Amino acid sequence: MPEGGAKRKLLDAAETLVAAKGFDSVSVRNITGAAGANVAAVNYHFGSREGLMDMVIARILDPLCAERIKALESAGKSAAAEALVRAYVAALPLVASAIGMDEKLFPHLAGRILALPDGALPPVLAAARRDVSALYLGALPKVRATDWAFFEAGLAQSLIATADSGDIGALLEDWIGFGVRGFSMAGNTKKKKDDTQGFLFDL
User: What's the pTM?
Assistant: First the structure.
């Protein structure tokens, strides 16, 4: 990651704008205007707009995947659902602290990144995110993939929508509780074969 200079200013500007508006709504001119740079600076430092956006994504998603794997290994794959869900969710503030990102910026930007489909991610990071999900699902054998997907998507959207309080602790605790309650129901209720809505609609 760039430590300073024009490249870091462009990255900081891109992160702030993406957190507020989303990836599709941020142009090169928006970024260079906020950074006080000329339009050619993005190509010079990052190769393209896509190269800059890939770095925005990597700054959060790469360490987040690593932290979630570390947390799962610490909890143990035979741990109770609550410990596993807590490990998965609690990785977020740990990464925010590790990369030194502003506490008001991080949840919005992390939510935007986590809400992206695999096709919008650098292939290596898309594969890493899938691997992390597979590891947690493997440790939660009664949980359906659709339930896990709804949990991940809901967490991402709540991060995007959260108020600029500078403290996401309460929000994350709510999602830990929600996940634990939902996943504890896995296998305990009769489902229709065509049910693809997940536990979100069972609570």
Answer: 0.87
